Amino acid sequence: MKVTKAVIPAAGLGTRVLPATKAMPKEMLPIVDKPAIQYIVEEAVASGITDILIITNRGKGLIEDHFDRAPELEAKLTGANKEEMYHSVVDISRLANIYFVRQKETKGLGHAVNCARSFVGNEPFAVLYGDDVIIGEDPACGQLTRAYEEFGQGVLGVKEVSPEAILKYSSLKVDPIRDNLYRCTDMIEKPAPDQILSLFSILGRCVLPPEIFDILDRTKPGAGGEIQLTDAMCELARTTGMVAVDFTGKRYDMGNKLGIMQAQVEIALKHPEIGTQFKQYLKEIAATLR
Fold first, then answer.
1. Which contiguous run of DSSP H or E holds residue 95?
2. What is the pLDDT at residue 69?
3. Is the dihedral angle over the CA atoms 261, 198, 135, 18 positive or is it negative?
4. Are residues 230 and 174 in contact, defined by beta-carbon separation less than 8 angstroms?
5. What's the confidence (pLDDT) of residue 267?
6. What is the structure's pLDDT at 24?
7. 153 and 212 Cβ atoms separated by less than 8 Å
8. Phi, psi angles (nearest 5°) of residue 32
9. CA gap 186, 174 in Å, rounded
10. Among 254, 247, 261, which residue's Cα sits nearest to residue 40?
11. Model-level pTM?
């Protein structure tokens, strides 16, 4: 079955990057000239997604405004004959059918995804974490949807991380299928050192069958007292099995100060408008470092 729906959980408070996120959603932090969440939406659209639900909460109205039309701004750009700028603004509202729902209480990622039940219905859907921007020639979400369409099972976007980092993420039990595809039969969130199943961890993307909602309904609070999506996916992995895709592309953690700066620098270097000048600037700065 083709995957055409996606959910983007964007209700987190962004405490790791305060005070920047005191009044601005972390998903709206700019990477050169676009907010982080626009990169995520564009990735979904490039993967064949037509309908996107963004899970927000109080204080996230800027996200809705960004994907809406802006008649006054559009009129000003048109009047000034700034056609390229005009289309860059208008095209944002035409990327996909974008909907919003508020997570009334921040009870964890699993609770946020469960807010999408009526939007999803009885269809498979992609989940693109609002903290994670992934840049690559082949959209990461598309790599996962192709695996779902081939195997008909839930799919996890994974990467190998360091032994230190795995303690803060999830650890997966995997067996090779072929190339960058693996069978996942177990997982654990924030494992203790003696609980590590492998250094593969879920990083920012998954495709889930609608059965996940019934599992989430009976999932008890886990790590941090929150309803963890990983706990629900663990039940899915242990019963029906899941597929793990070691996706290509560079992931940037936009809930982390260093991740934000890495995204800014690396994407700026490839930017068609400022890339060449920015590269020269970095060379000059690098020459002064000791």
1. none
2. 87
3. negative
4. no
5. 96
6. 87
7. no
8. 65, -95
9. 8
10. 254
11. 0.93
Which ranges of the chain would DSSP assign to H, the alpha helix? 36-46, 61-66, 71-79, 83-90, 109-114, 117-120, 140-151, 163-166, 212-217, 229-239, 257-269, 275-287
Distance CA 247, CA 254 (A): 18
Q: Residue 58 has what pLDDT?
A: 85
- pLDDT for res 117: 94
Contact 155, 240 (CB under 8 A): no
CB-based contacts of 115-121 (< 8 A; 24+ apart in sequence): 115/55, 116/7, 116/53, 116/55, 117/213, 119/5, 119/7, 119/51, 119/53, 120/5, 120/7, 120/53, 120/210, 120/213, 121/210
Structure tokens, 267 = 């994407």
What is the pLDDT, as a whole number, of residue 106?
78
List, for the chain, all residue ranges whose pLDDT scores fall below the cut of 70: none
Q: 184 is written with which tokens?
A: 């996942």
- Phi, psi angle pair for 181, to nearest 5°: -105, 140
Residue 132 C-beta-side C-alpha neighbours within 13 Å? 22
The pLDDT value recorded for residue 226 is 81
Measure the CA–CA gap between 223 and 103, rounded to whole angstroms. Answer: 19
The CA–CA distances, whole Å, from 22 to 10, 104, 176, 237, 246 equal: 15, 19, 44, 37, 35
Nearest alpha carbon to residue 52 among 41, 64, 68, 62: 41
Supply the pLDDT for residue 125.
Answer: 97
Q: 242-246 and 155-160: which strand pairing?
A: parallel
Q: Which two tokens stand for residue 82?
A: 């700034």
Q: Which of 23, 31, 24, 25 is closest to 10 using CA atoms? A: 25
